[in-house]
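In this supplementary section we document a worked example of the pipeline. Step one takes a protein sequence of length 123 as its only input; no multiple sequence alignment statistics are reported here. Step two produces a three-dimensional model, which step three serialises into structure tokens for compact storage. The input and output of this example are shown verbatim.
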Amino acid sequence: QVQLVESGGGLVQAGGSLRLSCAASERTFSTYTMAWFRQAPGKEREFVAATAWSNKYPYYADTVQGRFTISADNADNTVYLQMNNLKSEDTAVYYCGASRAVYSRLRRDFSSWGQGTQVTVYS
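The serialised model returned by step three reads:
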């Protein structure tokens, strides 16, 4: 099973930026779609953004559209999430997930997960 390791979380003031990284141990049919989800305290894990390794047709949750950018670097098997204009409601643990499904944003379609990285946005 593919191993995913996230990094890049931290504490940032509202309006600031962070870039998260997700290093994948391999790229196979089981990692066709790479995504970021997040989970705030007391809430369900929710979809944030996803892309295929080709970087064609990335897609986003409405709440982050225009502020976050997902990209994949095939050279080092790493997926990034650039987060700009951060808001307090973006505070959550961010998880990287891998799926063999195409264009999914459903948690149940993602079979591999990283350990998560905390993002805290303060006002």
